[in-house]
C-alpha cells in the first residue's frame, strides 16, 4: 500500500524540487527579481516559473533544429510510405533517448489512396501531352531524387475521361453561376480551375465540380497567385517555378474527417469499415493537379468567349471560357486499407498526472515537406529534446505533457482524428488544451524585411490573452521581443498607422485543415495553433524541401527555435499554472463580435430576433470577467488551498465541453461545437449552425440554432458564477 501525501505537501515539494536544479544556474547568472505576474500563477510560483523558463529557453539550438530538419526531409515521405513508417520508428527511438515516457506506436488501418498511373493529353485542336512531373535543378540535388511522385490528388476517383474543357476560374459556386448566365454548362465536361482566386480548399472545388455534373477536374497554379508575378522563383526565391505542382487530397473532410470508412469511430483492430461507396467524404470525380506550364497550352488554345477581367491570370494569353479544346485524362488510383502510425509519448505530471497538455505535429508530407510539415517536426523534436533535458535534471511539470507525431494529416486529418476518436473519453475529461504546430516556418525570412516573418497564431478566445502575455518573454530573430515583432509585422501587413491592440493580435476565428480539428470541433477541447508566415509559393510541391528552407525560408533556423521556445513556454505555463489561464471575459467579448459580424453581413432584423442571444453573451462575458478578477485576488492572497484551486480548475475545464451539441451541426453531425467550425472551403465559421441556417434563409432552423446557443451560454454563465462563489467561500 502506497502512502498518499496531502496535495498541499506535494505542491510544496514540487516547487522546492524545481528550484534545486536552478541554484547553480542562478549563481552563474544573477536573475532580476521578477516584477511581472504570470496569468494563473501566484507570485512565488510565478518567480519559480520564470526561473524554469529561463533554463528551458537556453536549451533549444538552431544547429540541432537544422539537423532534425535535414533528417526528416532527406527523402519523400507521404503517408503509408516505407520512409514515413521508418520515420515513425525514428521519432519513437529519439523520444526514448530524450527521456520521454510511455512511448507507443499506435497503428490504424485506414483507407488510403495513391496513384498507379496518371496521364493527360490534349487531342484537339492540337496534340499535346502534359508534363506531370517537376523539373530538377542543379542547385538542389534533392530535386533529382527519383522517389518523388508525379502529379496526383489523394482520393481522386479512378477514371478515363475524354471531353471538352471549360475554364471555371476558381471553381467556386459563384463561378459556375456566371457560366450558367452565359449559357455554358459543365455537365459531362472537364473543368479547369485555379488554386487561389480567391482561395478555397481543393476538396471544396472537387465537391462543387461534382455537384455541377463535371466529368473531371483539373486544378493548376497560376503565376498570379504563387509564381513569378510575386517575386523571384525557386531556386532563387520563395515563389513557385513554372513546373511546380501543388499536390494534395480532395477528401471531403469538412463533412467528416479521418478514415472515410470509419466515420465517427476509430479505425482500430476489429473496427467496422463501411463500403467506400457509402462514405460521405470520398469524391466521385476524377481530379488532377497541374503546373501552370502544363495548363497553359489548354488555356491558349481555347477560342470561345473571353473570360471576365477578374478571371484573367498572369499568363501572357487571353483567358477564355470554352472553345475547341478537348482532352483525355486517365487516372488509376490504388485505394485500399493501409497502416498509418501515430507516435505517442509523455512526461508524467508530478502532481496532476491525469490532466494533460497535448502537443502535436504531423509527420507525413506530399514530397520532402520542407515547410509542411517538417519545419514543424524539427521544432517539435527540439521541443521534446529540451523538455526531456529538464526532466533529466529532475524537473517535471505539475500536469502531464503528451506529445504526438500524427500520420495521414494530408489525406484527411486522419491520424489525429483516429487517435482522438479512440481516446475520446479520456480526452474529454483530462485534456487541458491541444497545442498544434503544422508548419513552424511557412515563409521566407530572406524576403521578409527588417521586421521579419509574421507570427500568426490562432486560438480559442479564452486562451488568447495568455498567448499575448507569453510572447513578451520570447526573443524574436529580429532582436525585439516576439510580442513587439508581432505587433510590428501586423502593422506592416495591414499598412496601418498604428500597431493593433492586444485584443486583436490572436486570430480567434479558427477554421479547419489541420490536426486541431478533432480536439476542438468533435471533442470540445481548447486548441492553439502556432507558426510563422511569409512569402511562400512552393506549397505541396517537390521544391518545398531542405534547400528551400536552408537557403530561402529560415537559413539560420532561428525562427524554428523561436517557435520551439514559444511552444514550450505555452505548454509549461498550462502545465504548471495554479489556476488554468482561461479568460472567459475575453471569450465573451469575442462572441459578441462574432454575432455583430453575422448581423452586419446578413439582413436579419426582418426574420430573426437575436436580442436574447446578445443578452446571454453579455451575461457570460460579465461572469467571466468577475471570475477572472476573483481568481487573481485569490492567488494574490497567497492563501488559496490546493483543493479549492483544483475544484476551480475542474470547473474551468468544463466550459469548452459545454459548447458541444451531441446532435452536431445540421448536415454535419461529426462537427459538434456550437461556436467553432469551418466552411467547406476550410475557412473559419463562427456559430456554424446559426450562420449556415441564416445564409440559407432557413429562419426556423436559425431560431432553433440560436436557442441552442442561448442554452449553452446560460449553462456556462451559471458554471462561472458557481465557480466564483466556490472560490470566494472562506477566502480571506
Describe the protein's architecture and organization:
The chain is of the alpha/beta class and 732 residues long. It is 39% helix and 16% strand. Strands 1, 2, 4, 5, 6, 8, 9, 10, 11, 12, 15 and 16 form a twelve-stranded mixed sheet that branches. Strands 13-17-14 form a three-stranded mixed sheet. Strand 5, helix 7 and strand 6 form a beta-alpha-beta unit. The protein is globular and about 85 Å long.
Tell me the layout of helices and strands:
Elements (H helix, E strand, L loop, with lengths): L6 H13 L3 H6 L14 H15 L4 H11 L9 H16 L3 E24 L3 E2 L23 E2 L4 E9 L5 H9 L8 E5 L7 H10 L4 E5 L2 H4 L21 E2 L36 E5 L1 H9 L25 E22 L4 E11 L11 H19 L6 E8 L2 H4 L1 H9 L1 H7 E6 L4 E2 L11 E2 L2 E2 L4 H8 L10 H13 L22 H6 L4 E3 L2 E2 L12 H8 L4 H19 L7 H18 L9 H27 L4 H16 L18 E3 L5 E3 L1 H8 L3 H30 L4
Parallel strand pairs: 3-7, 4-5, 5-6, 6-8, 10-11, 10-12, 12-16, 13-17
Antiparallel strand pairs: 1-2, 1-9, 4-9, 9-11, 14-17, 15-16, 18-19
Helix pairs in contact: 3-18, 4-10, 10-18, 19-20, 20-23, 21-23, 22-23
